[in-house]
Amino acid sequence: MAFNLENFFDDIFCPEEGEVVTVIYDLPHGDIADNPAWQERRGMAEEWREKLAAIAARRRITVNPLVTYYATGGNNADLPANCFIDGKETDFNEMINKSSIIIAMPEFSATAPLYYLAKKSDKLRVASMPGVAKFMEESGLSADYTAISKKCKILEEIFNQAIAAEVTFSSGHKCYFDLPAENKALIDDGILHPDRAGGELSLSNLPAGEVFSVPNENEDSRTEGELPEKIGDEIAVYVIKHNRVTDVRGSGPAIAELRRKFREDPGWCNIAEFAIGLNDKAKVTGIVLEDEKAGFHWAYGRSDHFGGKNGVKNFISPENVVHVDIVYAKGNPIVCSKLDLISPDNSRRTLIVDGELQV
Fold first, then answer.
1. Whether 119 and 156 share a structural domain
2. pTM tops 0.85, yes or no
3. According to the model, what pLDDT value does residue 200 have?
């Protein structure tokens, strides 16, 4: 069945009379070069805005003109002070405060700053869609989000019974994650109904469908091991001790540049996320937004938008802020061979085998 934006909009947002919808995206500028995928995404945002405007009157909602802003150049960096509406510059926060639903389709993720704004509001819900592509309308975006919400709640409960996890990869590497009880699991089930405003569930990364938590970020953290990533023809190995990336092993110029960035900025070195995607329509495409909803992933960098400790202040500059996900879903070059959650009594529950979720 072809993707129906109106049905999707109803399922995700369940809009009420009087709601104000704003579609936003970022713009290339200066040294931040444009690319075909970004161009397609801007066209997609314009198409979605037009279709939503066409149903606005009968739904008794308001759909604003498109809002644009100059790209930050960094994933989860703070948003600029100003944006543009019909070419006119205006205050970004003022525009957001006048909206109750925001659909963001940027090149560079704005999830962290938008999450903070949504949590402070009593009406705002945000669909954050960095890197979204048109084809996702027929894959991850077309999933049954009521069913996904139910699966997220089941997995959330399982997460919260564990204090650690051990992950083995198809490359042979292993890593132990310290998951303290106080760092409760969070869900991203895609549901952004009005009662979600002002809380932990007021933002969703669409396509959605994952359960995640922040590992122990303290100096006594037991998170330790080796985390692999295929980069070109080489395998980079992130060496982890006390929840920090202490080295990036591997050869080749791309890995050497990655190693330099970790050595330069302590904010990058934090292990920020431990997560499992469970969207059964999500496909491995090389685009993290959808890939991460298909299986196990971890992230380095910023974590404060998840309740962690690593925020903008921990990086050498606001422009250097990152939150980068590394994904091991079935179909990726490196797959999660086995993932065990470990309970306080040291018993184990296997959640993933050869990239397949067992729950």
1. no
2. yes
3. 85
